[in-house]
Amino acid sequence: MKRAFRLLLCVAGTAAGIFLVSCTVNQTLVIAADGSGTLTTHAEVAPLLHDYLAGLAEAGGSGLPGGRVFEPEAVRKSFQSRPGVIVQKVEAPTASSLDLELAFDSLSWTLDHQEALASTGAATLTEDGEARTLRLRFDRATWSGISALVPPLQNPVLQQLGPQGTGTVSESDYLSMISFSIGDGAPALLRKSFVTLTVRPQGDILSQAGGTKNADSVVFRIPLLRLLVLDRPLEYSVTYRLRR
């Protein structure tokens, strides 16, 4: 298994691996009192690696105008096809970053009608009286559903670098393989990479699991390494009561 995965990383190429270990993602989910809301995302590739990535893409015939790493129009089309999702903003303010803002009339309805999420239980919203609980579960069964909703993860190369359906790889083995295929500095970058999701309901936060509670929000800071390995499930939740 280790030998096959090592070969896979080498074949996948240095560019894809560097993208994974040096892309920061910050998201904020705001839930209004009527259940509607917005999800804003900012993704950015480390500046020192931008020129390298853009150069490789151009050499391979897939370079974007201005050396951009992200393609806003492709992202827009992908999310416009999702039931209940309203695309309010998609732009690349710099060649190495992407800003995305989505809106929904009902978070509950929107989650229920994303087939990739509903079929795997990756993201659910349940009600118990006035309390509502948003649950996120990341494991090998839900990975395909999650990646189907994130355009960059639909790239076959990036999919191969994520968790596979069978077999497991430990964190130490994964870091060793990343170092072998990309370079000695890659493991340190990967350990410093996180996906940060802030959930801010317009109401009272009753409880949470896996994150940090602030005055009006819960922050989930998910290590990218854990998402790529997924040798055990990752579960996060927040229970809240909206103000009417």
What labels describe this entry?
seven-stranded mixed sheet; four-stranded antiparallel sheet; 11 helices; 32% strand; disordered N terminus
Q: How many strand segments? A: 11
Give the overall silhouette: globular
Helices, by number, come to 11
Whole-number count of domains: 1
Mind telling me the C-alpha Rg?
18 Å
Measured between the Cα atoms of the first and last residue, the distance is: 54 Å
SSE ordering? HHEEHHEEHHEEHHHHEEEEHE
Largest sheet: spatial strand order: 3-4-2-1-7-10-9
Provide the low-confidence segments as ranges: 1-19
Mean pLDDT metric: 78
Class by alpha and beta content = alpha+beta
Largest sheet features:
7 strands, mixed
Q: Strand content of the residues, in percent?
A: 25-35%
What percent of residues adopt helix (DSSP H or I)? Answer: 25-40%
How would you describe this protein?
- The longest helix has 13 residues, at 47-59.
- With 244 residues, this protein is of the alpha+beta class.
- The strands form two sheets. The chain has a seven-stranded mixed sheet with strand order 3-4-2-1-7-10-9.
- The chain has helices at residues 2-12, 14-21, 47-59, 72-80, 107-112, 115-118, 143-148, 156-161, 171-181, 186-191, 224-229; strands spanning 23-31, 37-45, 86-91, 97-104, 123-128, 131-138, 194-201, 203-209, 212-213, 218-223, 234-242.
- A hairpin with a 5-residue loop joins strand 3 and strand 4.
- The protein has one domain.
Concise overview:
It is built from eleven helices and eleven strands. It is an alpha+beta fold. It has a seven-stranded mixed beta sheet with strand order 3-4-2-1-7-10-9. Strands 5-6-11-8 form a four-stranded antiparallel beta sheet.
